Amino acid sequence: MSKYINHILSSFKTHPTIQLTTIIVLTGTYVLISTFFVAKSNIDGVLSSWGEKVRLNIYLTDSATDDDINKIKSKLSKLKKFSPAEYVSKEQAAKNFMASMAQSAPDLLNNSELGNPLPASLELSIKSSTSGAEHLKLLKIAAESIRAFSGVEEVSYGQGWVKNYSDLVSGFKNSSYAFLLLLILGSMLVVSNSIRSSVSQRLEEVEVLELVGATQSMIRTPYIIEGMVLGLITSILAIMGTYLLFLWQQSIIIKEFDLITFGGQFHFLNLMQILGVISLGVSMGAAGSYFSVSKINTGWAAAKRTNGANWQ
Amino acid sequence: MIEFSHVYKTYSGTVHALKNINLNIKKGEFVFLTGPSGAGKTTLFRMISAYDRPCSGHVQVGNYKLNEISAKEIPTLRRSIGVVYQDFKLLKAKTIFENVALPLEVRGEGETVIRKKVNEILDRVGLVYKKGKCPDFLSGGEQQRVVIARALVHQPGVLIADEPTGNLDPHLSEEIMDLLENINAQGTTVLIATHDHNLVKRRNKRLVTIKDGELSEGAA
Ligand SMILES: Nc1ncnc2c1ncn2[C@@H]1O[C@H](COP(=O)(O)OP(=O)(O)OP(=O)(O)O)[C@@H](O)[C@H]1O
Ligand SMILES: [Mg+2]
């Protein structure tokens, strides 16, 4: 244990600038990664609260019988990802319509000669637990399966804007994951670089250890631990930094925007996500240092230096 | 114990450091290797400790065929031999004690065993009182004795020593030679490279000579 601590301290002594730069860059990278997760879970909240407003409307013909309606209802109850269907009668539809029109065209309320041209309908919405990217597909399948039933006049789900919404959500997902992957690879490279310089500063030591018969894992372990500690320290610093950013941004967002837009809540990472970021840091640290040290510590480090890099 | 057959080593394309080396050293033998500077002594030693590989030919040390040795076997071979490097290869950041302890540490020996054996061998080379110092604070001769101690501390079956007395005065040289003969008497195969002809003459041992990369039995 104290052997590994000494190893890390001596790395810090021999090349403090590189170590410090590494810590700053890595912390920055993990701040970006944590911010990504904070943004993602909050935006997911917004999107799925929009998702709840995506409704499937099944308009019924005037001649639809109770039997027809029951058949449709029982079909709908089998759609797992939708909330139970709600029946809106012709009269209810008229009332709703009147209510929504009361401000813009109050006269309509008094014009009884118009009769009631509105159809009865069944309404259902997608459960909020389903992902936004899936909505369009779910709605399409549901609409197709219902359209042919007798008593159905038309099925509507605002096809146009649901498609846009669905594209937006899946576009956001794909591009953000690509970005995330880039950040993660970047963090591994940064650790790898720092460990590479640790190793090359101690090339002599690696050589001597090899020559007295140390195994590869004996030589590698301290460097891999060094990388893991770098990952651990920087991801913890990053979580703290991101939390400060979060508090600062939260006060701005609450002032500037209606919190309803965020589904009434704006939240930081949960414990699992925090542990996730930290273990990401530790494992990228281990992977990065493994790459660097395994290239040098092949058992023939001394021969390589003596004969030049191309020596086989 | 140590066998060379038709060994060639060429550095960077043009320097033929070893040419058709054939050598057979039996278990328990004590052999001197002499030859002028640049003759190939260090290169020959490097083939034995798996520090480097020959370009062609076969080298065998104990049961290890060094042409086919796998990455996993290299550490076990190196633990079974002791090497005195001409350029010492001491770790500057570690104390004398820690340097000498390395071969025991990599074998996973316990602390008490390490302390006992390191102190014992440092006593035999006369350096116990410097064990807490780092190599840079020792004279060339003292460093050389540290390297000898490190090569012997794990009681290897084979000892190869490249100019082990190069930095020592005649009196100390004799003492170290006595030590190595002692080790040899206990069963260790010993191969020593040296420039010091007087030293070789005084001890009645097998002598091989290398010149321009070519080996011959006896004096040149
Ligand atoms: N790394 C290297 N690259 C190229 N040539 C080398 C290298 N090491 C040694 N040589 C050459 O190989 C030849 C043998 O060198 P070696 O070190 O084996 O000699 P030596 O007998 O040990 O000499 P000395 O008594 O001075 O230690 C010399 O001509 C030397 O210049
Ligand atoms: Mg030499």
Task: Summarize this entry quickly.
With 312 residues, chain A is of the alpha+beta class. Chain A has 10 helices and 4 strands, in the order ααβαβαβαβααααα. Chain A is elongated, with a radius of gyration of 31 Å.
What does this structure look like?
- The complex is a heterodimer of chains A (312) and B (220).
- Chain A has 312 residues and is α+β, with helices and mostly antiparallel strands.
- Chain A has two domains: 2-49 and 172-307, no CATH class; 55-157, Alpha-Beta Plaits (2-Layer Sandwich), CATH 3.30.70.
- Chain A contains ten helices and four strands.
- Chain A has helices spanning 2-14, 16-51, 66-76, 90-101, 135-147, 159-201, 203-211, 216-256, 271-296, 301-307; strands at 55-60, 86-88, 121-125, 152-156.
- A four-stranded antiparallel sheet of chain A has the order 2-3-1-4.
- Chain A is elongated and about 100 Å long.
- Chain B has 220 residues and is an alpha/beta fold.
- Chain B has a single domain (27-52, 72-217), classed as P-loop containing nucleotide triphosphate hydrolases (Rossmann fold), CATH 3.40.50.
- Chain B is built from seven helices and ten strands.
- In chain B, strands 6-7-8-3-9-10 form a six-stranded mixed sheet, with helices on both faces. A four-stranded antiparallel sheet of chain B has the order 2-1-4-5, covered by helices on one side.
- In chain B, a hairpin with a 2-residue loop joins strand 4 (56-61) and strand 5 (64-65).
- In chain B, helix 3 (96-106) packs across helix 4 (111-124) and helix 4 (111-124) packs across helix 5.
- The mean pLDDT of chain B is 92.
- The chains are: A alpha+beta (312), B alpha/beta (220).
- The structure holds adenosine-5'-triphosphate and magnesium ion.
- Adenosine-5'-triphosphate binds at residues 11-12, 15, 17, 35, 37-43, 86 of chain B.
